[in-house]
Amino acid sequence: DQLRESGGGSVQAGGSLRLSCAASGITYSWYCMTWFRQGAGKQREWVSSIGLQDSTSYADSVKGRFTISKDNAKNTLFLQMNSLKPEDSAMYYCAAKRWECSGSAADMDYWGKGTQVNVSS
After folding, report:
1. 80, 70 contact by CB (below 8 A)
2. Residues linked to residue 46 through DSSP beta bridges, in sequence order
């Protein structure tokens, strides 16, 4: 597995979780790293990306609540999720795309298997 997510779980609304994604077998610094999520019965949606120069971008639905970051020395991507809402419940996936970032799932080169986040009201 090139990408492996962890850190999901169950939390009440207003709570926080920190997701991690460990990368192996790829030259991590060559890749834009992205978080996607897919709720039950919904399409996979883009959440946030962090580029080669550490530029970040967020979906409007998570802006101001989620923070993406990475540790290049440890080849690890993070997603700090605060003020969680029930609508944030989903399987969260990390993905890697070489060079430029993209918000399209079809453009990703590698995927993790996901980590489940459940937010109760």
Report:
1. no
2. 36
Reading the block at residue 37, the tokens are 């999520």
- Strand 9-12, strand 115-120: pairing: parallel
> Is the CB of residue 12 less than 8 Å from the CB of residue 18?
no
19: left (phi over 0), alpha (psi -120 to 50) or beta: beta
Give the Cβ contact number of residue 41 at 10 Å. Answer: 5
Q: Render pLDDT for 11-51 as a digit per residue (tens, 0 to 9).
A: 999 999 999 999 999 888 899 999 999 999 999 999 999 99
SS3 61: coil
> What is the rounded CA–CA span in Å between residue 92 and residue 31?
19
Distinct helix (H) and strand (E) counts, the chain: 0, 11
Q: In this predicted model, what pLDDT tens digit does every residue of 58-117 receive, in sequence order?
A: 999 999 999 999 998 999 999 999 999 999 999 999 999 999 999 999 999 999 999 999
